[in-house]
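If your schedule permits, I should be very grateful for your opinion on a structural question. I have a record of one protein: its chain in single-letter code and its fold written as discrete structure tokens. Would you kindly read the sequence against the tokens and tell me how you understand this chain to fold? Thank you for your consideration; the sequence and its tokens are set out here.


***
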Amino acid sequence: MEKVVLVTGANSGIGLALCERLLSQDGELRLCLACRNMGRAEAAKSALLTSHPQARVDLLHLDVGSARSVLRAAQEVKSRYPRVDHLYLNAGIMPNPKVDIKAFFKGLFSSNVINMFATAEGLLTQQDHLNSDGLQEVFATNLFGHFLLVRELEPLLGQEGHPSKVVWTSSSNALRSAFSLEDFQHRSGTEPYSSSKYASDLVSLALNRHHNAQGLFSSVICPGLVMTNLTYGILPSFFWSLLMPIMWFIRMFTNTLTLTPYNGAEALNWLFLQKPESLDSRAKYHSLTSGLGNNYTQPRQMDIDDETSEALYGKLLELEKVVRRQITEEAERQ
């Protein structure tokens, strides 16, 4: 029986690298690339079919930053497939990143240099804004849109005898200090990316608590420091040209600098091969690359707790009701 795999943000970077690796693992699977930009999605599909001519690759228009787009896409998925075996929640944004240059150079020549590259703690801030649904854009794209997608696809996830995996692409920058239950959209803060990634860790734990019994299992991964379009947007290109030799040297002493999308997709690919019942719901599975270039996956316990996880899950359910009501009322006025 063919496996159905849906990947958001699949047209480039880690998402595309994951798709390539999955097709190399299992040529019988049905792969769905869920992307916002359909032109790039078509190019990604062509690239995959060039290396895997017999692969079954579908495209789905999905902008996870728009609740309307999520609901439309979910209906399309339910009309196409009887179930979804693997749902990779990989799409994400980091708009208008700013780096504290003084803190960066201070950290570059300190004993904290490895942790600085691994987590970017204290370095990155972003400017967020409201989307068309009236939600903070980073929160909507990195967390709420994916949460809504899971909710809509619940009938296809975890059917009897066929457990399903939901996998969130999180980050080592998912810091408790950046998250607040009272401001879970991060309207008043300057670290919306870190907040949204920490929130995804919490939601994953809640999904397991509420849905393991039906066969839905949720996991979280960290791809390490990967050079993608998102990363390159943090600093001017000439900075990266200067830094790359340093980063390759530092990688001899740490395993978190995965650097390439292929390496960053290691944990995502590893989870595809595991039995969901065997996974630790409190662990974040890290893609790691040794100084010699060997890739492997390592679970590390997350800084999360049941009380905060459950409280956020409840707030998201309430927000879902509000957003659905707004969409229904707007449709009735048209």
Notes: The longest strand covers residues 216-222.
